[in-house]
Amino acid sequence: MDDLPSLIAESEAAGTRVRGAVDEAGELPGLPAAVRLAVHRIVQEALTNARKHAPGEPVDLTVTVRRSQSRVEIRAANGCPPRATSPGTPRGYGLVGVGERVAALHGELTTGRGDDGRFVLRAQLPVPPHHSTEGVRRMVGAVR
Length: 144
What we know:
Layout: H1 4-13, E1 18-19, H2 33-53, E2 59-66, E3 71-78, H3 94-104, E4 108-113, E5 119-126, E6 136-138
Parallel strand pairs: 1-2
Antiparallel strand pairs: 2-3, 2-6, 3-5, 4-5
Helix pairs in contact: 1-2, 2-3
């Protein structure tokens, strides 16, 4: 998860505006490596999908560690282009892979259009109780 600023910077360099800023304060000691890697890969896939399927649309991204609830929450939302994705746009298995990664950690994943018509990816990953402490740590700024 320490690489989230790099992922965001890479995405922005490729032309995708990411709304939200990484909070550098504090540490995330003790989170399992599998959870940290899953967060990284989920954010990476969300940003890649936004760039691929909704070029030019901003992405609102939050990653929140809710230690008191023993979970990490990821939410990415991006607008949809005014026209449908062109028929030549290749479709991969990115969201399938995200779903498998989330399921392997006994988490929850939802994807689809939100009430506002934007595409939304929401993932919740449990953190084993012995890794949990009180407090909330917001890694990426609030969704606007």
